[in-house]
Structures are given as C-alpha cells and as structure tokens.
Amino acid sequence: MLAIIGGSGLAGVPGMVVSERRQVTTPFGRPSASLVLGRVGAHALVFLPRHGDPHAIPPHCINYRANLRALADAGVDRVLAVNAVGGIHAGMQAPGHFVVPHDLVDYTWGRAHTFSDGTPDSDLRHVDVSEPFDAGLRANLLECLARARLPHSAQGVYAVAQGPRWETAAEVRRYERDGCDIVGMTAMPEAALARELGLRYAMLCLVVNPAAGKSGKVIAQAAISAALDTARVAVQALLADFIANDG
Ligand code: HPA
After folding, report:
1. By CB atoms within 10 Å of each CB, which of 49, 75, 235, 246 scores lowest?
2. Residues lining ligand 1, judged by CB closer than 6 Å?
3. For 2-111+129-244, which CATH class?
C-alpha cells in the first residue's frame, strides 16, 4: 500500500474517500497525527501530515521514527513524500518549480535518526543509502510532471538543514559547494528510516523560495504561503495522476 506524507501546504489527498482516521502508538511514541486511511478510486492509501494536524510540529521535533513505523505497521510498502524547499541551483530557484531529488546531504543533528539505537530490542544494522530515493516511484513522478507540462528538474541533490530558522547565505554557499541544488528540513531522517524499514521512498519537492542569499531579498513567510497557494492545484493534479499510475 502507498503512503503519502504531506509537508507544508498539503493537508490531504485530492479525491480521497476516507474510511478511517486511526490513532496509533508505536514503541517510539505517537506519529505526527492520526493515520488517514482510504481510497482514491481503486487505490488504497494512507495519508499522514508530517507537521501534524493542525500544522504545528517544527521539522526538528517531528517524531520521524513513529511516523515511519506507524506507516509500516499499517501495511505500507512505499512512500511518496511531498516537501516545500528553497532553490539553490540557478535553474531551480523559481517558486513553482518542481524537483524530484535523486540524492541528499544530511546536515541535521540531534534527531532520533535510526531504529538501531542500541536498545535491547534493536538490531545493529548498516543500511545502504547510496541511492536514497526509489527509482520506480521517481519514474512515475517524472512521467506525471511531463504529462502535466510542469516546470521541473528530473534530478537534484537535497540539502537537509536543521531549521526551523532559514539558512544563512554562507550556509547556502557551502551547500552549493557540496553539490546541493535545493534545501529543505525534513528529508532526513525520513528517507533513511524508510530504508531501514524496507519501504520504497521518493520525494516530490516544490520550490517555494530562492534559498537564502540567492535573491537579494529576505525569505518572507507571506511569499512562501503565496507560492504554496499558487501551486496547490498543480500539486493536487500531480498526486491524482501519481496515484492512478502507482502500483
Ligand atoms: N530552506 C530550508 N527549508 C525550506 C526553504 C529554505 O529556503 N524553503 C522551504 N523550505
């Protein structure tokens, strides 16, 4: 079964007929919100709002382990995560541009980032994340973006910043030197935890602002909200097409 993890600006799945809102607890605590189970047409799926419902949990306080474990326990085997990001690469700075990242660099710290945490019930496992994003899910996303004729980049490296503050201009220049194209706050540990659980995982990223230092302007929440509003219909249509072609 497919799960969609919604980021900023995505509060549900278009056309989803909800059959259950399931409040669950895991050995790692509670997920961000109740799992929303249901169908879009013949496709069963689960929706989870990453920042809670209402949207209140900052990126570094999200219980990523509970989120991923709750989804796996519900029978999920693949995850599409939707994220708002800042654009670093010159071709990825325009609000409304989509990126399907193929790799990431993790700059976060202090997050509970693994199920191998040394507790008596955990195994010591070193998972391979040389390709953190699933090729099949990425291919479906790219076909949907092409069909919708939306501006997008077919690959990109996602810098995972700690937040919740935006970056300094020097941090963004450092990420750029490191080979990063976009910056967000939530891809890790989410992607690695999905891999530890054997869940296929990919991300649809929506650029909502040029990254710090890239536009000569401060990063304003109002402009980000406007970018999310403008893109809402496109994101919803993309998700509907993705789900129709999933599985
Ligand atoms: N930086 C980090 N995360 C983000 C940004 C940004 O500029 N925009 C949206 N999420």
Report:
1. 75
2. 84-86, 161, 166-167, 183-185, 208-209, 211, 219
3. alpha beta
